[in-house]
Design a protein that fits this description.
Elements (H helix, E strand, L loop, with lengths): L1 E5 L6 H13 L3 E4 L10 H10 L3 E6 L17 H9 L5 E6 L15 H10 L5 E3 L2 H16 L1 E2 L5 H8 L11 H6 L6 E5 L5 E2 H14 L4 E5 L5 E5 L1 H11 L2 H12 L3 H7 L3 H9 L3 H4 L2 E2 L1 H6 L7 E5 L5 H9 L5 E6 L2 E7 H16 L1
Parallel strand pairs: 1-2, 1-3, 3-4, 4-5, 7-9, 12-13
Antiparallel strand pairs: 6-14, 8-11, 9-10, 13-14
Length: 362
C-alpha cells in the first residue's frame, strides 16, 4: 500500500521521520516530499499529482499553515492544504491533529494563527485522531491504515433500484438491464435503501435469488433514507428466510427462471416475473406483495445480522481497532452519528494486525 505523508516540514520534521520509519517497518510504501528526486515540475503541483497516485493520504497538522505558492493559486492555499484537497474524492484521507492542549514551542507556531486555526476547525469534522508525541502518532496512524485496508464500501446497483421501483417491470423500463445485472459479479457488498421507496417481499426475494445465482455478492447492507445503518446479511440467508415465510416466492422464482435460465435470457424475460408471481400466489403482484422492513428481517424472519455497529468517535484509531476486533460478527459497520461510513471485514483486519506484528518482529 502506497501512503502519501503530508504536513508542514520544519515544525513536524521529527514526527515525520518517526512515522515514516514505523510505516516502512510495517511494509508500507511511503511517499514524502523531502525525498523527491530533482524534476522539472513545479513542486507544489507535482505533490498534488503524487497524492492522487497513492492509495492513502496521511495528513499531519500542528500550528503552521505552510508555504503559499504565488503563481496559479487564486485561493491562496498552502502546499499542505493543496495536498489535502488533491486527495478529495480520489484517495482516502486520514487526518491527525496535534492536540489543542499539547505543549508546543512558540517558535514552531505561525505568528498569526488565523489561517491554521480555520483549517484545523474544518479538519476536526473528519479527524482520524489526535496526537501529542511521535510514538503515539505512529500507533494511531498504523491502526488507521489497518482499519482502512480492511474497510469495504457497499455499492448501490442500478439493477437493484430498477427492480425495487419498477412496478410492472416493463421492457422500456428495463433498458440495458443485462449490463446492470452483470454488476452483481463485481459488487461483493450491495447497499439497500429501505426508504422512501419500500421493499416488497417479492422484489427483495428476486434480488436475493439473482445475486446468489449470478454470484459475486457476499452481503446485503440495509440503510434507511438517511443512510443510517440497519442490518446486514448474505443474499442466500435473506432468500431462505423470505421463502420460509412465503413459500410461493421460491415457486415464483423457479417459474421465472424456467423461462430465463441464463443472464442473457433474464434481460429478455424479467418482465415475466410479475406473471410468475401471479401464477404462484394466485393474485396480481400488487395485491399479493407485502412490504418488508429491515426490522422484520431480523426480529420476525430471524435473519442473522452479519455486522455490529461501531461508532467512529474521537477516542483514536487504536481504540477503534480494538472495538472492531472485539465484535463477534464477520463485519463491523462504522457509523458516525448513526450514518454508515464503511464496513470493516473483522477477519481481514485481524489478519492484517497479526501480519504487521510478525513483520515488525521478524
Amino acid at each position: 500500500m502506497k501512503v502519501y505523508l503530508s504536513s508542514t516540514y520544519l515544525d513536524l520534521k521529527s514526527q515525520r521521520g518517526t512515522l515514516a520509519l514505523a510505516l516502512r517497518k510495517a511494509q508500507y510504501d511511503v511517499v514524502m516530499m523531502e525525498e523527491y528526486a530533482a524534476r522539472d515540475a513545479i513542486v507544489e503541483f507535482a505533490c498534488q499529482g503524487d497524492v492522487a497516485a497513492c492509495d492513502a493520504y496521511v495528513g499531519l497538522f500542528a500550528w503552521r499553515y505552510g508555504l503559499v505558492p504565488e503563481g496559479n493559486n487564486p485561493a491562496r492555499k498552502s502546499v499542505t492544504e493543496l495536498e489535502y484537497s488533491a486527495a478529495e474524492n480520489r484517495v482516502p484521507r486520514l487526518v491527525f491533529l496535534l492536540r489543542d492542549d499539547a505543549k508546543w514551542p512558540k517558535k514552531l507556531k505561525d505568528p498569526d494563527l488565523a489561517r491554521i486555526a480555520e483549517l484545523r476547525a474544518r479538519l476536526k469534522t473528519t479527524c482520524a485522531a489526535y496526537f501529542s508525541r511521535g510514538t503515539e502518532l505512529a500507533v494511531e496512524v498504523l491502526a488507521a491504515l489497518r482499519v482502512l485496508e480492511a474497510t469495504r464500501f457497499a455499492r448501490q446497483l442500478d439493477a437493484v433500484v430498477l427492480i425495487q421501483r419498477g412496478q410492472d417491470l416493463g421492457a422500456s423500463y428495463l433498458a440495458n438491464i443485462k449490463e446492470k445485472l452483470g454488476a452483481f459479479r463485481q459488487a461483493p457488498l450491495i447497499e439497500f435503501q429501505t426508504g422512501p421507496t419500500p421493499w416488497w417481499n417479492t422484489r427483495l426475494h428476486l434480488v436475493a435469488a439473482l445475486a446468489e445465482d449470478i454470484g459475486g455478492t457476499a452481503e446485503f447492507a440495509f440503510v434507511d433514507a438517511d443512510r443510517r445503518f440497519l442490518t446486514m446479511a448474505p443474499p442466500a440467508e435473506i432468500r431462505r428466510r423470505l421463502a420460509q415465510r412465503w413459500p410461493a416466492l421460491e415457486a415464483a422464482y423457479a417459474l421465472f427462471r424456467k423461462d430465463a435460465p441464463t443472464l442473457e435470457s433474464i434481460e429478455q424475460n424479467l418482465w415475466r416475473y410479475p406473471m410468475a408471481v401471479k401464477a404462484s400466489f394466485g393474485d396480481e403482484e400488487m395485491n399479493a406483495k407485502e412490504v418488508v422492513t429491515a426490522r422484520q428481517l431480523e426480529h420476525e424472519l430471524g435473519v442473522a445480522r452479519d455486522a455490529e455497529t461501531v461508532e467512529v468517535g474521537d477516542k483514536g484509531q487504536a481504540f477503534l481497532q480494538r472495538e472492531i476486533l472485539g465484535r463477534r460478527t464477520p463485519f463491523a459497520a462504522l457509523v458516525r452519528d448513526g450514518r454508515l461510513e464503511g464496513l470493516v471485514d473483522s477477519r481481514d483486519l485481524a489478519r492484517k494486525v497479526a501480519d504487521k506484528a510478525l513483520a515488525r518482529f521478524g
